[in-house]
Each structure stands twice: as structure tokens, then as C-alpha cells.
Predict the 3D structure of the following.
Amino acid sequence: MNHRTKLYFATDIHGSERCFRKFLNAAKFYGAEVLIMGGDIAGKAILFLTREPDGSLTSRYMGNNYNLQPGSELDDFLLLARSNGYYPYAAPVDELEMYQKDEGAANALFRRLMRSSIAEWLDTAETRLKPLGVRCFVTPGNDDPEDVAEVINGSSYVTNPEGRVVDLDDVHQMVSIGYSNPTPWNSPRECSEAELASKIDAMMIHVRSSEKCVLSAHVPPYDTGLDDAPALTSDLRVKQVMGQVQFAPAGSTAVLEAIRKYRYVLSLHGHIHEVHAIRRIGPTVCINPGSDYGQGVLHGVLAVLDNGRLVSQQLVSG
């Protein structure tokens, strides 16, 4: 009987292809048997490139203008854009002008590029992880449109664990939720604290032992040091005092109460990029590795579970 599992958890890569590939490589590098991606995997924008009459492509990116010739120069640029979470799209100037004027068409293009990119990622995950016998769970986060869940659900290998109880081994189970409590950004997958509590409770009914269960909740527990985010003014600007950014808790009270109630062996979180921390709430070790996806750095958690106990936990970066 398998009572011991080494897992690797990362989150909030926001479309960064470089970070997703590092996530897959973590299985072999750390000897992890289970990979868990905790939400917010989709990118946020299209990077348009104009096809010029001479065959070159032009684009404005990160405040700089680029004129790119087909070949290694263009390949490197596209890799850079995808690594920073953009979806490159090249077209003649008249087509790009159409997208600028037609928001519906631009949104449809974004969804198509996003779905295609994530589907390719999941195919790569199967190719790399299946021969190793590594299981892979990917949960959509609050920033992920519903299309993301549809794409994950269509994978023949990667599992979307949200709203379900999944077995990590013969002893340990996991429940997952990618929704967040309300944010100032009105992201696609938000709900009230009461709804969050209800979603967690509905899964816990089917758990064999809550104290041998892992909680993967995208939003961290409220006011625990795992959820310190830059405080915002009424017009959504970052508050500063004497040039110093002010922070305030932005987590979920429902997640906090669930951890106190169910006494999980381990809880894993994301959502707040600035945090890289481990806290204990009662017997539960709670971890938010944070995110620096824009720098191409993947922060993660390496944890070992053995017969209902958390044997070790470590924040890792690469």
C-alpha cells in the first residue's frame, strides 16, 4: 500500500510558458510523484504583430518598437512574449485595425489563442509526465475564464480537481477550489464568502479523514501573513506612505474557517504574488509560495506526506 507521496505545488503563472515548462521539469528534478498547479494559468493579453509588405513583422512591446525578420530573431522574440504570459498574433494591418475597433472579435480571438495555448501545454504535460508515472492536477483560478476549466476537463491525462475529492495515494486525499472571494478587479471567478464556505463543505462531506486531507485553495486564509497584498485607494492605486507601499490582508475568511474546522494536514495557496511564506493554523501547515512569473522565476512548494503526517515542506524557486 502506498502511504507516502512527494508533491510539488506552484501557482499563478498567468500564461508564462517558461514557468509552465519549469513546472513540468520539477517532477524529475525534485523526484515529485504529484504535480499540482493551483490556479491562474491563463495569460491576460494578446501581443499583436503587424505583417509588413516586405515580410517582416513589427510590434511595440514593453515600451519598445521592434522590427523582426523571420528566423531566429523572430523566434526569440515570440519565446520572450510567451514566457511573459502574452499570446502573440501576427496579421496584416487592416486585420489588426479591425480587432482594435471590434471588442467582441478581439475577445473571441483572445479566447481562441488562450484555449490553443493551454491545450498545447496539457499535451506537453502528458508527453513528459506519463512515462514517469507522475500525476498532474491543474485547477483554474479566479483570473481564469471558464474556458480554462473546459480545456483542462478535455485533457486525457491532466486532471482538474476542483469541486472534487481526489486521492493522492492510499491515505491522503485533496480537495481544491480556485474561486476567490470578491476582489477590486471583478475577475471571472469570484463569489461570496458564504459561497466559498459552501463549496468547501460540499467537498468535505466525501473526504475519508479531514486531518489526512490536503486543501488546495487558490485564495489564502484571511489575515495570516499569507495574504498581505498592496493596499489600494478608491481609484485602485497602490497606497504609499513616505514612498513605502502599504499592505493589507486580502484573503478569505471562509478559507480560514475551513482550515480551523477541518484541520487539514496541509493547505496550499496562491493569489497573492508578493507572499512567499509558511504559517501554521492549529495543526495545519499553510503555504503560499507566491509568484514572480513576469521574471520567468517559478516559486513552488515541495512537500512529503507519509501515512497522514506532513514529514517535510520546503519553499523552492527556480
